[in-house]
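Lab notes, practical 5.
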Amino acid sequence: MSIYVGNVPFTAEKEDIQELFAYYGAVARVSLPLDRETGRKRGFAFVDMVNEVDEQSAIDDLQDVEWMGRAIRVRKAEPRGGSTSDRPGRSERPTPNRERRTPDDPGNGSQD
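Output from the prediction step:
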């Protein structure tokens, strides 16, 4: 399980996040994504902890807590792209029926 941390201050470093979550248990990894174009922090992070019980405690305790001047949002991270297991893939999606009608076609709602 991975933890999503939103509304992270742009001044926060990996070490700051590590320290915050270490209070709840051993932290395995901290990821602080950067914008590809600008190289600046994107304002969120992911934290992996060694123990799932510690992860849940951190989620419960840190949700909407003010940290470094911002109210952070902490929740269980979802797989990239969201939950796609219940959505059909692009090739499996039905194609909309887009018949073009001309003004002369019967059934287009026009009256002669």
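Observations recorded by the TA: The domain at 3-35+45-79 is CATH 3.30.70.330 (Alpha-Beta Plaits). The first helix runs from residue 14 to 22.
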